[in-house]
Amino acid sequence: MIATISMALAAGLASALMFASITSGAPISLLLINLAPLPLMVVGVVWGPLSAAIGGIAATAVIASLFGLPYSGMFAVVNALPAWWLAHLVLLARPVPQEVAGANPDDTLEWYPVGRILLWIVFFATIITAITLLMMGTDAAAIHNTIRKGWGDILESTGLTLNDSTLDALVLIAPIGAEMAAVAMLTLNLWLAAKIAATSGRLHRPWPDLKNTALPNVVIAVLFAGIVCCFSRGLPGIFAQVVTAGLSIAYALTGFAVLHTLTLALKSRPLWLGCAYAVVAGFAWALLAVALLGLADAVFGLRQRYLRSRPPPLPKS
User: Fold this and answer.
1) 180 with 293, same domain?
2) What tens digit of pLDDT does each residue of 232-273 get?
3) Domain count, the chain
4) Is the pLDDT of residue 156 over 80?
5) How many CB atoms lie within 10 A of CB 239?
6) DSSP H stretches of helix in the chain
7) Do both 168 and 80 map to the same domain?
8) Which of 4, 49, 141, 287 has the fewest CB atoms within 10 Å of its CB?
9) Which of 62, 74, 60, 57 is nearest to 5 (CA)?
């Protein structure tokens, strides 16, 4: 127990220092502040969510002593709370009835689905983005003016100049980009935490088959409702854009899972997958095509149709 608490406190201190590194102004601090939840997620996945809670409380106290309560509250919402809850979900399982369970010991437990964990990531990312926007202003005009000023400061420091139409476009897409970045970073942190635990042999659940990641069908209705609300004015329109962006990136992640499934029979599978990832990395709009693939799979069951059409494997001699 003492060792577990010690590891939790050490993780909390590491997370707090990574969060506080932004005050140094060093370029590496941008990476460190985005990876601040990682130590808490690691101890949460390895030693349980209670360890993540202890580390999160300790880290929040350190941030409060260094920067005050507002920053400690932001740290708790952005890093500590998601780390604790996501670690809890990773280790959440329920027994499978004996008549359903197979001979494999791993089949005796049904683990919390990866797709639902992804939805929780979108939820936390949306909360983080919404709080960030509300700190800029309490109405759409104030938020846009703050974002415009921020872009202006960045452009002034880099010596770049943009016309008003391009700057207006950057102001409009900034909340969407913030939401997508938050989803991506929380997903990356949780994946790294689970991979570290698995590599050390301390992951207390079988590694999930990420090719089977799927979102609940009700998310389709929420996504289309969000798209409709995007045309609203004011704060409702901005928040609808944020929610739509978060769900879109979630469907993009399931779209990659579809790609990994539909290319199983290809001999040059690594090449095709590598090209797909390269295109998405080089052209941001390609992510929309991957999201549409994930949405098409949710509607038409592309992976199930493909797996049913594959011939059964040949018996081993």
Assistant:
1) yes
2) 988 999 999 999 999 999 999 999 999 999 998 888 899 999
3) 2
4) no
5) 22
6) 2-20, 28-34, 37-47, 49-67, 69-75, 81-90, 114-136, 140-158, 164-199, 218-229, 234-262, 269-282, 286-300, 302-309
7) no
8) 141
9) 57
